[in-house]
Amino acid sequence: MTSKRTLRIVVWIFNLGLIIAFSSIYYVFNMPHRNLSTETASYTLKAADLITQFKKDDVEANKKYLNQALSVSGIVKSIRRLENHGIVISLEDAMEGVSCSVDSLDVVKYKTKLSAIKEGSSASLKGRCSGMLMDIQIINCVPE
């Protein structure tokens, strides 16, 4: 009698734990992105200045710019279309410049503004800084 009751309690606790775990995972993967089109940029910079700051002291630059909304402008060096229909626009230098990633939903939403951006032209994009790998990563970008 007691072992059956204990087993039931253990099974209920296990099932409750599974429900909480799957609910948490679902929430994290379906969490909405920040709406950067309506958010005011914390910093407005030229891409060359941002590159200089990261090359000078990347630790301080990360403290200052990481997860901040940045408005970055510069000369477009390359435009890459991704398999998921997103776009990556490289400013100033294709290898060590600023990579601005535009999500596929924003590509559709800002189609006319994005079609005006050509290699060699000047562009201004607003997005969230996610740090520096080979180049400085700006994600969830929208054209300004």
Write structural notes for this entry:
- By secondary structure, this protein is α/β, with parallel strands linked by helices.
- It has 5 helices and 6 strands.
- 40% of the residues lie in helices and 32% in strands.
- Strands 2-3-4-6-5 form a 5-stranded mixed β-barrel.
- α2 (47-56) crosses α3 (58-65).
- It is elongated, with a radius of gyration of 22 Å.
In short:
The protein folds into two domains: 1-31; 43-143, Beta Barrel (OB fold (Dihydrolipoamide Acetyltransferase, E2P)), CATH 2.40.50. It is elongated.
Shape: elongated
* Global mean pLDDT: 88
**Major sheet attributes:** 5 strands, mixed, barrel
Q: How much of the polypeptide forms β-strand, as a percent range?
A: 25-35%
N-to-C terminal Cα separation, in Å?
70 Å
Which CATH-level-2 architecture of the largest domain?
Beta Barrel
The CATH homologous superfamily of the largest domain: Nucleic acid-binding proteins
Kindly report the spatial arrangement of strands forming the biggest sheet.
2-3-4-6-5
Q: Into which percent range does the helicity of residues fall?
A: 25-40%
Could you name the ranges where pLDDT drops below 50 across 5 or more consecutive residues? none
Class inferred from helices and paired strands? alpha/beta
How many domains? The number is 2
